[in-house]
Structures are given as C-alpha cells and as structure tokens.
Amino acid sequence: NAGVMQNPRHLVRRRGQEARLRCSPMKGHSHVYWYRQLPEEGLKFMVYLQKENIIDESGMPKERFSAEFPKEGPSILRIQQVVRGDSAAYFCASSPEGQGAGYTFGSGTRLTVV
Amino acid sequence: SQKIEQNSEALNIQEGKTATLTCNYTNYSPAYLQWYRQDPGRGPVFLLLIRENEKEKRKERLKVTFDTTLKQSLFHITASQPADSATYLCALVPDTGNQFYFGTGTSLTVIP
Question: Is the CB of A91 inside 8 Å of chain B's CB atoms?
Fold first, then answer.
C-alpha cells in the first residue's frame, strides 16, 4: 500500500502561469481533502471531494482555484494565474468511508511562485 | 471567532522525561479531537483520536486527555526519545461540517 501519493513534490511557476497538483488517495479511500499550509501557520482546509463530486469547497478562494476528483485518475488541484501569495505547501489527505478516522496525508507539493 | 491554540513556544526536554503539549480551543463544539506528528518537509502523520465522551486515550508511550469543560486537550509522550523530536498538531473535528481545524503546532526537541 503506497499511501497517499502527491506529485510533483516541488513546483516552481512564474506569476500568471497555471499550477496543477495531483493526488492519488490510499487504496480503498474514497474521501479526498486538500489543505494549504503557509509558513508559521496551521493547515487550512480548502476542499473535500468524493469521486466525481465536490462535497465542500468552503475553504477554496473564490477565483483561480478549482479541484476535481474524476472517476478515473487522481484528484487535481488547479491554480490559474498564480500569484506570489499562492506560494505554500499543499497537502492532500484521504480517509475511508465515514467519520471517526484519522486522515492519511501525502508528503505535499511545495509551490513556489517567482 | 473560533480559535485553536497550542504551546506558542518550542518545547525542549531531556531524553527520558515526559513531554506535555497543550491544545486549547474556543468557540468550537468538537465531536472529536486528533493529534498528528509532522516532520520537516513531510505531511502530518495521524497519531491518536479521542472522542468528546472519552476522558483519556493511550497508545504505547502516548497519552491524550480531553476536557470539554476546560476546552483543552493534553498530549503526553512518556520516556521521550530524540526520535520524538517533531512538530505536533492538534486537530478539532466539529460535530457538523466536513473539515478539520488544525492548530499551528508545537515544536518538540528531545535532547539526548
């Protein structure tokens, strides 16, 4: 069991470019969450998805950010027209069906906008 | 507004001693609370979960308490080892909603 796989580990983008972050959940996990971690700050919830459905996107910025979890393939967090303030570590986590379980986190994607 | 506070200062302790980390919260009604460990450049790793109706939970050298009256959780590592050095995060899971609310973490260093 490979755990939660995120790629790339590091991503450098120029201002105005697009960033695509990928996450493959643990085998058997149907719930995917994206969190953002800024330096000296806690993890902040962005979005919660199940296959083909966005369940809760209350933490997503209104513009430029989108997420999907297609029937086949990994979950994608997409940031359009990146700005310097988007530089952060983005973590994906997955959990099995139902509440009461801890998350399994990936190692994160560190996005740097130059 | 909602707030989660963990030890603001980094914690340094001698090997073999017990480390105690605190997590205080306001304006939440957590259904349960979790503790995670995070090493530099890595994702958090789940350690323990405690429900609102549980007072204490243990796992090997780890112990968590949860006092919903004081709105506080304590996380203890007994017989600490240098390998326990990491940042420890608490996360609250409210009784409604889908997201976890994380504290900023406490950095623990165990000195040999």
Answer: yes
